Amino acid sequence: xxxxxxxxxxxxxxxxxxxxxxxxxxKEELIESKExxxxxxxxxxxxxxxxxKLVIEPQFDKAFWIxxxxxxxxxxxxxxxxxxxxxxxxxxxxxxxIWVFQFNNGVASFITETGKNGIINKSGEIVLPAIYxxxxxxxxxxxxxxDTLGNKGYVNIKGDVIVPCRYDAANGFNEGLMVxxxxxxxxxxxxxxxxxxxxxxxxxxAFGDGLARVKTNxxxxxxxxxxxxxxxxxxxxILTGFSSNRAFVKTGNTIAMINKNGDKITxxxxxxxxxxxxxxxxxxxSGRYGIIDSTGTVxxxxxxxxxxxxxxxxxxxxxxxxxxxxxxxxxxxxxPIHDKVSIVDDLSLIICMDDNGERGxxxxxxxxxxxxxxxxxxxxxxxxxxxxxxxxxxxxxxxDLDPIEGIYYVTFNKMAVNRENDHASSNGSESxxxxxxxxxxxxxxxxxxxxxNDPWRYWVKKFVQIGESNAYAIVKNGESSWAEDGKMILEDxxxxxxxxxQGGNNYYNWYVxxxxxxxxxxxxxYEQVQKAEWTGTGxxxxxxxxATNYHVVNxxxxxxxxxVNGNMDNAYKGYVIASDREHDLAIVQIVDxxxxxxxxxxxxxxxxxxxxxxxxxVLGYPMTKTMGNExxxxxxxxxxxxxxxxxxxxxxxxxxxxxxxxxGPLFDNKGNVAGIICAKHADAExxxxxxxxxxxxxxxxxxxxxxxxxxxxxxxxxxxxxxxxIEPFVYLIECNSH
Length: 738
Description:
By secondary structure, the protein is mainly beta. Helix content is 8%, strand content 48%. The relative contact order is 0.07.
């Protein structure tokens, strides 16, 4: 196996191995499968079928890629176990188990927190103890196992050791026999561990079509399952095993296609040939890859950087170190833009993975997009976190933050106090930004210095919460318990002080007074989250996608969208999939089993740019508790081409807006979306603000959502007729922080 092939083996086949035992189907038509596939939206995992239909709504923090035997591993918070196809936990698992792979025949391999592997059944019972370095599934027969010394063996699905770990290689069963190697010699054992063909070969490969290729004295030949040599010819190399009565052999510099009788069918003008499957084989010539059929005819010239074997007539290909899918005519079904690609053969479902396997994209065999993961608020720490990264972290945890958590501007005042007269004098001060963060699952908090040149430098070892009260104490570096002088009662999480004794001599005691002033989250953000429930407005930008303000959905654990297609009786669950905190914008995707899609959106986004004095109108749901859920219309003009304090990302408008209008659309006089309502001036009358729609378009583009934007034109209808047409696409957004 060349380095090129090895690279693609690891980048592609790891995912291919997951999809074992899928229901077969006609090449052109997808059928309903019992397996479900993981999706991720807004930082939560759910499941769809191969048609893209939502089966389990997003709710899990982690989950395996695919169901097997109608169960799948998943986690919510501290809870972990196996879920059924209704999304219910049916088996709870011990915390020491950190991952479970796909189930087949009622069992699956698992990994523990120590990195050891074992086998578990659907009831959570350990079938094979987690004492192995590696355990991987081998079809329906069982599992290949590897001990800590690198020796390999085999167990059946009951966990019985069939082949002990004493071989250098054991690659799984094909046609009832498995190649095993020891001391540089290879042979074959059956599924009971009994030697069928002695280890006499320098090299050996798996059986296919009843024959296997073996190497003796630098020459290759074929043998049958009794070990009998088939044919009289030997070869310098046998490039592929038999499939559909075809194999590729090499003698000198000549590559030939032969049948099982050893008859040459044709010669191949290539440097090498790879796996023959579905009547096609991939070949390489001058460093490029092409395809030949079962007669040896070139179907696609050698022009690709890489081509996989056939998957029902589809091939994974590479271009500029990115992967896509091409058909047998050379037409790109999926463009080469993905990090990893695999194809479920029986369903011809194409699974692509980007962002180091964190983001899944699903296509059907015709290249139609079925689903694209959008992580939204899911947070992961970068190597060098900045202040903005800490803000993003706190936003992702907002409803669950402890009062002391946040970003503070901390001033350290150093003091010397005279022992005789208690006179205090200053020895200077310095100020820095720090982030106070709870250590997961504990009552401890670390204070992280926010400095791009020195990330993750701790000022103190930790804060400790004392009991369940609002009492906290600082544990100094190098000490295991907190000192009484570092204790405080947190009465105001936005401003507090702690004074720590630093030592002294015969004349002075030295102290440092630490003054904390919270910079983020702001009091306004906390106030919204503490309300538990609040509302805003949003509007359709594509089928299933809604634009609103960042501040409307910030801190919400649950987002419900009402008013879809004019129906206020139904509420659909939504998830934040993209956001721009700086410009107060967010995009919500509706992912709900009840959701059937939007009607055709009648307007366009940013088709024209209104000028000062142009008429505009606003639709939204202000103050719903007192004004009701009926959509409200206000109109006015563009008062200024810039917003608060001359902010060029906004318009100032005269149309009246209230709390609840936030996130609603601003329309020009032709019914095109020109902006997104975001704020009102508290000290001025009829001075309100809307973010220019160009910033929303930039967010859509940069987020790689891949949606089709509406491009319709209402035209010069009366305002009442425009409103009637637009109203079904302006929504009430209901948020809940609990």
